[in-house]
Design goal:
It is a single chain. The protein is mostly beta strands and 123 residues long. The protein has no helices and eleven strands. Strands 2, 4, 5, 6, 9, 10 and 11 form a seven-stranded mixed β-sheet that branches. It has a four-stranded antiparallel β-sheet with strand order 1-3-8-7, with no helix packed on it. The N and C termini lie far apart (41 Å).
């Protein structure tokens, strides 16, 4: 089994910054694509940012220029640096990591989700 543990959420004023972390542990061979999603109250879960195993990144238009996704493969961790936060960024943020078990081919990945961390942007 694989476990993802998120940290770094909290309450911040508009214009402030937060850094989210998501660490994977357990039965891990390699880690493929990683991503962050968010779900505001009463809304669907939306993609925020993704990063491939090669380091290519993609962002939702609403966060481009403000958020940065990165990964530390040695630490099995993905990060989301969030700057210039706005009230509309308020949501529960979830990480997702596609994990390949030891001895399996890269295409035989399985998705795992973090438990979610609350980010609230308010004055």
């Amino acid at each position: 089994q694989v476990q993802l543990v998120e940290s770094g959420g909290g309450l911040v004023q508009p214009g402030g910054s937060l850094r989210l972390s998501c660490a994977a542990s357990g039965r891990i061979g390699t880690l493929n694509d990683m991503g962050w999603y968010r779900q505001a109250s009463g809304k669907e879960r939306d993609l925020v940012a993704t990063i491939t195993s090669a380091g290519s990144t993609d962002y939702a238009d609403s966060v481009k220029g403000r958020f940065t996704i990165s990964r530390d493969n040695a630490a099995n961790t993905v990060y989301l640096q969030m700057n210039n936060l706005k009230p509309e960024d308020t949501a529960v943020y979830y990480c997702k990591i596609n994990v390949v078990a030891p001895g399996y081919a890269s295409y035989q990945e399985a998705p795992y989700w973090g438990q979610g961390t609350q980010v609230t942007v308010s004055s």
